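Researcher: I'd like a structural prediction for the single chain below. Treat it as a standalone chain; there are no partners to consider.
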Amino acid sequence: MRTGLPARVGQYTALLAYLVFLALPFLWLLSTAFKPPRELGSLHPTWLPRDPTLANFRQAFDEQPLLHAALNSLLAALGAAVLAVLIATPAAYAVARHRTRLARAVTGWVVVSQAFPFVLLIIPLFLVLKNLRMIDSVPGLVLVYVVWALPFALWMLAGYVRAVPRELEEAAAVDGAGRVRTLVSVTAPLLAPGIVATGLFAFVTAWNEFFFALVLLKTPEKQTLPVVLTHFIGAEGVADLGPLAAAAFLATLPSLAVFALIQRRITGNMLTGAVKS
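Model: Treating it as a single chain, here is the predicted structure.
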């Protein structure tokens, strides 16, 4: 007990320090959103606003079309989530159930593709969308988000498919069900938690994405929320801190709520894919 107690104290201390490190930016953002201009320019800033105000939120909505930008982000995120799930589900089933060289090659490519930087992908994606006449459009942005989310979505769902007992599918085959019928009627209902987690992951990724939206969307009416947030920064790089913090705080809430729903399922998928039945 004497040797274990210092180790546990050290672990909990390190965990607490890490949580504080992660929470500090969000807490400072929240504090800044409610501070009046005179406190934002103070040489001695405080964690808690001395005179809290909602003026920053009103100014943010008056200066920029946040609701319209949020609607564009919502459409892009929902479209990407739905398409990613529809494509990744049968692909993950094929990769998980048919362990051939091709399936292993696909799995390896999925892992390698996650290392590609955004800059490497934007040029070919831009050329493809230009040929399809989908530049400066939300549907074109949805296709880009689907391409970006598919590798991880495929990896996630493959872990859930491996956790489904093969005996259930074999019983369905004995009853005369084909591959498609088995996937739709037997496997898919058991994959519901994984499908939901994958869809929510794709949604969060698309909701927070900035670089692709900045490059592909030029019309102000079509820009997403992360791009509109940059409009609170002037030409000389001076930010309007109060409205920017208020708008950024509101834009962060949906992704935090969704991540709170999926974090346990993502962790469970990691463990599921690592254990063989």
